[in-house]
Amino acid sequence: xxxxxxxxxxxxxxxxxxxxxxxxxxxxxYQIAKLVADILSPLVTLxxxxxxxxxxxxxxxxxxxxxxxDIIQWSPLTSQHCLPVxxxxxxxxxxxxx
Length: 98
Fold this sequence. Notes:
By secondary structure, this protein is α+β, with helices and mostly antiparallel strands. It has two domains: 49 residues, no CATH class; 48 residues, no CATH class. The chain contains three helices and four strands; from the N terminus they run ββααββα. The strands form two sheets. The chain has a two-stranded antiparallel ribbon. Strands 3-4 form a two-stranded antiparallel sheet. The chain starts with a strand and ends with a helix. The relative contact order is 0.08.
């Protein structure tokens, strides 16, 4: 069986672009990918810089003490952002308003 390829609309964006999704469950490579994920999963927990979820991120950030001249680097899979702490604080305050 082949992978299924489809798109989910990003309704929060202008012109509603599609986010590409490749559903591989049931495909030829699914079992191999599952095996590799099972092998690598325990290794991820050994890395002190990997976070489990956004709740853990909030816990870590809440306990940090930073100076205004410190730099925070945020590296999600798709992009990298480096901002001084005072700019992150400004962004955080904008989100708190919602």
